Amino acid sequence: xxxxxxxxxxxxxxxxxxxxxxxxxxxxxxxxxxxxxxxxxxxxxxxxxxxxxxxxxxxxxxxxxxxxxxxxxxxxxxxxxxxxxxxxxxxxxxxxxxxxxxxxxxxxxxxxxxxxxxxxxxxxxxxxxxxxxxxxxxxxxxxxxxx
Length: 147
Prior knowledge:
Elements: H1 12-15, H2 32-42, H3 45-65, H4 74-83, H5 90-96, E1 110-111, E2 118-119, H6 126-129, H7 141-146
């Protein structure tokens, strides 16, 4: 397994796909699944070639067979499943793909057991979803009751 680029670091084409991580702490072996996932989703052809040379087809197939929740763009996952002849059940694909639109019917505004109170992630406040949190827009009536 080839570890890094000539200067002892990940190649620039790979580092660009890891923008939200401290690349100085990335370990080529330990973080193999992360690197493969990010490069196949966001990388250039140079990054993909590096991943193929470094990890090989079977390691890449294994990452695709066990995709991390919410880490894959649908088109990218479909492309690599097709290219590497990997078949996944629909529910695995659904969990793996990135969802950019919240499912209001099942999460943030769903009624919980607290007598109709809003349940969902505590870090998401309904007022921040409407009008950018600056007083613009109308807050849904369910949010007013909990507010």
